[in-house]
Specification:
Elements: E1 2-3, H1 9-16, H2 25-30, H3 32-45, E2 49-51, H4 59-62, H5 71-89, E3 93-98, H6 113-127, E4 133-139, H7 142-152, E5 159-163, H8 183-189, E6 193-197, H9 201-211, E7 218-221, H10 250-262, E8 267-268, H11 276-286
Parallel strand pairs: 1-8, 2-3, 3-4, 4-5, 5-6, 6-7, 7-8
């Protein structure tokens, strides 16, 4: 079992005490030492993987804030922090995160795959100088996933594809497409892992039996939100309008994770609002299995 880290952006916001439209990128600007501390805490909890603070280091996220000229600098800083944490840990995997263009959970706002790939490709190339794998996170449609996979295709690094499913029906992507519709994409690009991420753990449990039918190793890392608010729908929206569940402590989350393992998942971690204590519970249960 590969133990992923937990959520980075929400953990950074909790420690910084404020949320902005830049989300996790704000910490790179204001307090990069917090990013390092979160990585260190996840390794200490037993994670095998830390994910770079680059989910929102994207042109469409940075341009409205006048930060587009700093995209390479911020990408490199995030990667360097994660690599330093891995080296201090004495080993581990650094996964270079790339989030969805257009905004999270809003596949209708995403650019066409070819345009998305053109934006992802230089970021993937820059990340590839530091990271061990690329991880495309919270991809909410087949075309959104295609854009990410195309953008990473030239670096030669393994790619982990993480898909987000509908919070009311885990057998569908947030686009409304059936989860099976991603199977041709998996066959074409052959990602090293395919995960379900940043959805309610209950619907992740619904979607994994379908994902298990694809010829690819798979895993899961759910979020701890009560759901995605309708107003959280555009670049600049802040996460303080999303509510955290009160019934998903480490022991509760572990019970979901056991179900995922029974379904065949070999990579398990956490997304937003799943923190180091949750990862410690996963590591205690699954480490070495």
């Amino acid at each position: 079992m590969i133990i992923l880290d937990g959520g980075l952006g929400q953990e950074l916001i909790a420690r910084a005490g404020r949320a902005t439209g830049l989300w996790s990128t704000q910490a790179l600007l204001d307090a990069p030492e917090l990013v390092r501390a979160v990585h260190d805490d996840y390794f200490a909890a037993g994670a095998d993987v830390v994910t770079t603070d680059t989910y929102a280091v994207l042109p469409d996220r940075l341009e409205p804030e006048g930060l587009l000229p700093r995209i390479d600098e911020l990408t490199e800083l995030a990667c360097e922090i994660a690599v330093a944490a891995r080296d201090a840990n004495g080993g581990g995997i650094v996964a270079g995160s790339m989030g969805p263009q257009g905004f999270s959970y809003q596949p209708d706002k995403a650019p066409p795959a070819a345009d998305a790939a053109a934006a992802y490709a230089p970021l993937a190339k820059r990340q590839s100088q530091y990271v061990d794998v690329h991880i495309l996170e919270t991809m909410a449609s087949v075309d959104q996933a295609r854009g990410g996979l195309l953008g990473c295709a030239e670096t030669g690094l393994p790619v982990w594809l993480s898909l987000t499913v509908d919070d009311a029906e885990g057998t569908k992507l947030r686009s409304g497409e059936a989860l099976e519709e991603v199977f041709p994409l998996i066959e074409e690009f052959k990602p090293a892992f395919v995960n379900l991420n940043c959805s309610l753990p209950e619907v992740v449990s619904q979607g994994l039996p379908i994902l298990a039918q694809a010829d690819v190793p798979f895993g899961a890392y759910a979020n701890g939100f009560t759901g995605i608010h309708a107003d959280f729908n555009k670049v600049g929206a802040t996460v303080d309008i999303l509510k955290t569940r009160t019934d998903l402590g480490p022991a509760d989350y572990l019970e979901f994770a056991k179900t995922w393992a029974d379904l065949g998942a070999t990579m398990i971690g956490g997304c937003c609002e799943v923190g180091p204590a949750h990862i410690a519970a996963l590591a205690a249960e699954f480490k070495g299995k």
